[in-house]
């Protein structure tokens, strides 16, 4: 099936030719490479020589603050996506903390994000922009190199950001912004605080940003698919607290302008929790949620994560094959390929079967409401009602039916 063409007219990036995000060269970037290598070396060597528990605590607290308030809230959810509103002074504070992560200046980071975001929505883009090469190549590329596109598309940054004097100052001096913090930490706790509070923090921020970016575009569960996109976002559960909720990247690909990233129960999102606290005290408002965003025809909801879906199906099967339940089960099916007589011939006459034209799929239900759908339901019905050979055949077919159901059944969003 042909994927619907995404509407990207509103995007900050506008390319006349889609090859503009495909053709280019990855080149070693002396400044980025030295920046990361120097910070990492000082963090590793100095970290061993100058270890103190208080410095380690400073590292943990300072890293948490810049990732939560700076990167997640300031740079990403506010400056880039404008997904909530807040007082100007708070926006400046959050963006300043975002610069403290040590990735780039605010305008440079916004441009990098927008180029990736745009390129990833097209049918194809340079592997640099979609983390599309192997783990080690991607590490080298993203931590030490930059992409020089042969014919880069223009990136339109709104005046309020592009000509903002504070943001322009941060843009010119982003590496130097570590210096005032280093001086404060030195006065407070000597070199050990500088190593842990600055170099180790920058190393963790830059390295972690790449690592999560790699996994979030290669491995992990998905709730949605953006059809026709060069790459899909994946959620990276288990890192929700470390990333302040940024790990719900499949959700982010589906609803980029949502202020909330963890959308389901159990999807912890410290960034969202903080925004709700700020809203409570009147410091944040107009928080955007997925339901506030425009409908995207290319967005397809996927069935629940395979493993969870698998567990639910096994549970339903255990209930439905219990001898005491047999007589109480009912088969409901839309009757598109098999009429009532055909179904009776297949399952025997004692099966309770209801032909329901409005049903979307075949399902086997107990009176208490447990149900199983699709091929697994049909095989379990055979298992419940037929003789020994048919039961054996059905029993052997069930695993394949479950695997098929988990892997290939994608239902449309609405
Ligand atoms: Zn992405
Ligand atoms: Zn984003």
Features:
elongated; 4-stranded mixed beta sheet; two-stranded antiparallel ribbon; 15 helices; 414 residues; 8 strands; alpha+beta; binds zinc ion
Brief summary:
This protein has helices spanning 30-49, 53-80, 88-99, 106-121, 135-144, 159-162, 165-173, 178-216, 249-254, 270-280, 306-320, 323-326, 340-347, 374-385, 388-408, and strands at residues 24-28, 145-149, 224-226, 299-301, 330-333, 352-355, 363-365, 371-373.
Write the layout of secondary structure elements.
Layout: E1 24-28, H1 30-49, H2 53-80, H3 88-99, H4 106-121, H5 135-144, E2 145-149, H6 159-162, H7 165-173, H8 178-216, E3 224-226, H9 249-254, H10 270-280, E4 299-301, H11 306-320, H12 323-326, E5 330-333, H13 340-347, E6 352-355, E7 363-365, E8 371-373, H14 374-385, H15 388-408
Helix pairs in contact: 1-8, 2-3, 2-4, 2-8, 5-8, 11-15, 14-15
The structure holds zinc ion (ZN) (2 copies).
